[in-house]
């Protein structure tokens, strides 16, 4: 595929859908399932079908197929409910879904869209990408070269800004709130990554000046974190419930890369703390392994597209900013233990360390 794709920012409202999940192998099977499901649902479908690839499995993917219908509609063979709203980076794919000698297929378009969004320093979200089939599957023939599909990649920046504002409203005066979030509305829809980055860094610095308590600042920024994948949280919670022992569960996390691909260990010399080393695995594994330069190592280890360049330039960034990454682990432990734990940033590659290290303050009663 050659040429730049046209990426658009959109807000997709919540909608009532009938959904089902299936293990699928490839796009040809997705097309087949779409046609079968659409035929079964018939005229109650009121919008373009949606497919989301929820997780990768041994021989393909766990796919969720959703069909917009009138609110309140149910069906004996499908689950009914709201498909949540999302802010997305949208791109249109024209042609067949499957790769062939004549066409690269939709996967190539999606990969190029992700590359462009990353190069533009877009804060890509964690919700599954939506594939919206703008032609009804009942009339689409397999391999139809005239098919039109919109790829909707989750975009986290508007969510980040909204959660920042929610946290600030609970912590500062109205005048201070207005001062900190000035012009945030234009940032949410900005196409200028430099403008976005400058605003975010300035806002974090303003928060540091207005709110003297470090733990309050940490909680505000932790709430801005990316969404921890729900499927992964469900897996970890199931393992913890089965084991019933926090120490043994932490040992399991450290040994099972499929469950938790990050190093974690406990320190019980004083109050019990678990330490999580975030830079394993690094964000860009190949580039990280290919360089011995410590600055480049830290650059390729960092997961945050908004501030990664500051590692190369040496630009000072408030240490508070990495509390946003700490929020990733707040979500994790809240899902596992049904309570919010205190998470501290101990080290970060953004501040010159060779790793990101977070301290998780564990409830002593669960270790008795």
Q: How many E-type strands?
A: 12
The overall pLDDT average reads: 91
Parts with pLDDT < 50 across at least 5 consecutive residues = none
Q: Please describe the biggest sheet, giving its number of strands, its sense, and whether it closes into a barrel.
A: 8 strands, antiparallel
Count of distinct structural domains: 3
The number of distinct helices, counting runs of at least 4 residues, comes to: 13
**How are the strands of the largest sheet arranged?**
1-6-8-7-3-4-2-5
Q: Sketch the topology as an H/E string, one letter per element.
A: EEHEEEEHEEHHHHHHHEEHHHHEE
Sheet/helix structural class? alpha+beta
Within CATH, the superfamily of the largest domain carries the name Regulatory factor, effector binding domain
- Strand portion: 15-25%
Radius of gyration: 22 Å
**CATH level-1 class of the largest domain:** Alpha Beta
Give an overview in words.
The protein has 368 residues and is of the alpha+beta class. It has 3 domains: 8-154, Regulatory factor, effector binding domain (Multidrug-efflux Transporter 1 Regulator Bmrr, Chain A), CATH 3.20.80.10; 157-222, no CATH class; 230-366, no CATH class. It is 38% helix and 21% strand. It has 13 helices and 12 strands. The strands form 2 sheets. The protein has an 8-stranded antiparallel β-sheet, with helices on one face. A hairpin with a 5-residue loop joins β9 and β10 (273-277). α7 (214-222) packs across α13 and α8 packs across α13 (323-337). The protein is globular. The N and C termini lie far apart (59 Å). The model has no long low-confidence stretch (mean pLDDT 91).
């Amino acid at each position: 595929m050659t040429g730049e794709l046209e990426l658009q920012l959109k807000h997709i409202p919540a909608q009532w859908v009938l959904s089902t999940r299936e293990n699928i192998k490839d796009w040809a099977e997705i097309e087949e399932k779409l046609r079968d499901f659409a035929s079964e649902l018939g005229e109650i479908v009121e919008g373009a079908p949606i497919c989301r690839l929820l997780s990768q499995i041994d021989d393909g993917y766990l796919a969720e197929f959703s069909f917009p219908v009138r609110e309140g509609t149910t069906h004996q063979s499908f689950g009914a409910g709201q498909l949540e709203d999302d802010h997305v980076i949208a791109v249109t794919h024209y042609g067949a879904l499957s790769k062939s000698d004549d066409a690269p297929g939709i996967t190539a378009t999606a990969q190029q869209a992700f590359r462009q969004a990353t190069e533009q320093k877009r804060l890509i979200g964690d919700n599954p990408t939506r594939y919206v089939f703008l032609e009804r599957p009942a009339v689409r023939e397999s391999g139809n070269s005239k098919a039109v599909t919109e790829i909707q990649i989750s975009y986290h920046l508007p969510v980040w800004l909204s959660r920042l504002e929610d946290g600030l409203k609970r912590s500062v005066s109205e005048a201070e709130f207005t001062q900190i979030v000035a012009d945030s509305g234009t940032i949410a829809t900005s196409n200028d990554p430099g403008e976005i980055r400058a605003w975010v860094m300035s806002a974090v610095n303003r928060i540091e000046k207005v709110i003297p308590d470090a733990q309050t600042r940490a909680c505000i920024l932790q709430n801005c974190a990316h969404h921890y994948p729900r499927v992964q949280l469900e897996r970890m919670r199931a393992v913890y419930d089965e084991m019933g022992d926090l120490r043994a569960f932490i040992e399991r996390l450290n040994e099972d890369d499929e469950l938790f691909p990050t190093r974690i260990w406990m320190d019980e010399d004083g109050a019990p703390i678990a330490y999580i080393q975030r830079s394993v695995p690094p964000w860009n594994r190949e580039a990280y392994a290919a360089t011995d330069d410590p600055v480049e190592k830290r650059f390729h280890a960092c997961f945050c597209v908004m501030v990664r360049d500051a590692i190369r330039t040496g630009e000072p960034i408030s240490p508070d900013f990495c509390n946003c990454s700490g929020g990733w682990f707040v979500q994790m432990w809240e899902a596992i233990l049904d309570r919010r734990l205190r998470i501290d940033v101990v080290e970060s590659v953004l501040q010159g360390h060779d790793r990101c290290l977070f301290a998780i303050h564990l409830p002593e009663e669960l270790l008795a």
